[in-house]
Amino acid sequence: MATIKDVAKAAGCSISTVSYALNNDKRIPEVTANRIKKIADEINYLPSAAARNLKKQNTNTILVAISNFGGPVYNELLDGIHNELAKHEYTMVVSTGASSDNMLKQRTADGAIISDINISDKFLRQLSKNFKPIIVLDRSLNNQNINNMTIDNLKAMYLLTQDVLSKGYKKIAYVHGVKDTYDNKTRFSGIQKALRENNLEIFKEYFGNFTKDSGKEIASKIIEESIKPDMLICGNDEMALGIMEVLQENNIKIPENMGISGFDDIQLSSYFTPKLSSIKINHFEWGQKIAKTLLRLLKGATEKSTKELGTLIIRESY
Amino acid sequence: MATIKDVAKAAGCSISTVSYALNNDKRIPEVTANRIKKIADEINYLPSAAARNLKKQNTNTILVAISNFGGPVYNELLDGIHNELAKHEYTMVVSTGASSDNMLKQRTADGAIISDINISDKFLRQLSKNFKPIIVLDRSLNNQNINNMTIDNLKAMYLLTQDVLSKGYKKIAYVHGVKDTYDNKTRFSGIQKALRENNLEIFKEYFGNFTKDSGKEIASKIIEESIKPDMLICGNDEMALGIMEVLQENNIKIPENMGISGFDDIQLSSYFTPKLSSIKINHFEWGQKIAKTLLRLLKGATEKSTKELGTLIIRESY
DNA sequence: GTGAAAGCGCTAACAC
DNA sequence: GTGTTAGCGCTTTCAC
């Protein structure tokens, strides 16, 4: 590995001159700078991030921590964030699980975007003491170094429930995702709010974990029940899809025998028969907004927490 | 930010003792070590990756560079790689576009896994001079520091084509993905090999770019052709899905009027009507294999290039 | 068992 | 315009 010293030797100058030249400092005449750059290139020199980061006390990198790569919701969000960050010469890096912990602890990034319920509030609060801007997408957590930008789950579910009610459904059940998560709780709150305003109560609650498999299990239970709900509002699309699959295999017709709705509007949902009604979030745009906010935070700005609005997509499932 | 110095001061010992204690060096008695660890914790000390990386000349991090987050094929692959790497205390980080370039150049990782055709062979070869193990998944590139682990496209497509032939299809067309990519070329070669062995020739070639939209465009053309193929072998599922959508809208029945096949077996393909026949790759397991190989490479082992086998999934589309 | 000190590869203040 | 040098925060060799 060639270092700045090697370049200096090859160019017959000092390492500071090399450093200046390579960083386009105006004091070095263009001719000299170009000569040095050429030499650096020839001996295959690439600056070491470790040394530079240590000296500059920053990394020019943003970490995005997600709960897993397998889910269908992150893709566009990540592309949106990256799209915006790249415009500003920031490097974006994505991690999950233990890797996120490591990256966060070691301050391998100048800022972080968190969407991983496995990372505890406590850890994040601890971290925020030494780590500048953190934006959380999956919880309501706030302090001088932590901002939250969440989806307006409550409002979206409130609207959806009102629409469901207007279609005449009476026995409305909610299919929970992971119980204590921010998304699940606020989604449920939206339903309850709409129900309450209509002097109704939730007919039944089922408990899943946001996965398709948990939806299937729930559907198996529903099939055996003598008194069934007439509408299932699900915490997300994946559970709704799992439920529909099993229900239909057991000759329960959707929406004739039972209505169902999801949340997220993943791609699959519009291909399923019947097409799933859901709440659509423009994840790409949301990602861009998040990145823009982070960039402002990095510059020292103070930002308010925001809520991203979803739009109700009514298709065939209720 | 607390540094090792602050810990030393607080503990009333030297920084070397702190370093030893924190790294579980056996020379430090457990009592002392625990006391120091507790103090470090109290003052919120976390070691700096930059300093440590600079000193140790490694990062304990693996970079995975992919072409975009939007595609449906990477998810399981990434989870597979991470799953294996995490077992060995490595940090995995994923990047795309310019971020990948930056990470690679700056040696922010000890090794890299590349699946991004936007990164040139030349750049990779250059990089391999200073950067230890690189595994490429999307091309056939080899030198002492670069290994390739690709999908056995040729074999898979050969098998698929033979199956297609056995079903009686005669006018077989190929829908290309991005023309000069390894995946596209080798997939086409597999088809040609099978055709040749049966004294047949490709009936027609269409040119897309692996996206659903390019599939739609191609379908629009096909509709207007007076002499149509009776079978479309597509370079991947996404194009096949796009084609099917448009074809069906125009009353061309699949598989009655025209057969079609994909490659990758993405989740959507089994939900589409008709269900798409494709080549399935177990991306999670493949990811694990890749990580294991990389880990061995990191230890200095020499590895041969490998080809991951796909399995033919015959459903309803031909 | 503990500490002093060198040094990893850079940046930037300062001197000339 | 160019060079000298301190120092970022660690690890590790060498003394004691």
Overall 3D form of chain A: elongated
Largest interface: A-B, 53 and 53 residues
Oligomer: homodimer
Number of domains of chain A: 3
Structural class of the helices, strands and pairings of chain A? alpha/beta
| Element string of chain A (H = helix, E = strand) | HHHHEHEHEHEEHEHEHEHEEHEE
Going across the biggest sheet of chain A, name each strand in turn.
Answer: 2-1-3-4-5-11
Question: Low-confidence runs of chain A (pLDDT<50, min 5 residues)?
Answer: none
| CATH class placement of the largest domain in chain A | Alpha Beta
CATH superfamily of the largest domain in chain A: Response regulator
Q: What is the CATH architecture annotation of the largest domain in chain A?
A: 3-Layer(aba) Sandwich
Radius of gyration of chain A: 26 Å
Query: Distance N terminus to C terminus of chain A?
Result: 63 Å
Walkthrough of the structure:
2 copies of one chain form a homodimer. The N and C termini of chain A lie far apart (63 Å). By secondary structure, chain A is an alpha/beta fold. Chain A has helices at residues 4-11, 15-22, 30-42, 49-56, 74-87, 97-105, 121-127, 153-166, 182-197, 212-224, 237-249, 283-298, and strands spanning 61-66, 91-96, 111-115, 134-136, 146-151, 172-176, 204-207, 231-234, 259-261, 278-280, 306-308, 311-313. Chain A is elongated. Chain A contains 12 helices and 12 strands. The first copy, chain A, has 3 domains: 4-47, no CATH class; 57-150 and 283-307, Rossmann fold; 153-280, Response regulator (Rossmann fold, 3-Layer(aba) Sandwich), CATH 3.40.50. In chain A, helix 5 (74-87) packs across helix 12 (283-298) and helix 8 (153-166) packs parallel to helix 9. In chain A, 44% of the residues lie in helices and 16% in strands. The interface between A and B is large, with 53 and 53 residues. Chain A binds a DNA duplex (16 and 16 nucleotides) through residues 3-5, 13-17, 19-20, 23, 27-29, 32, 47-48, 50-57.
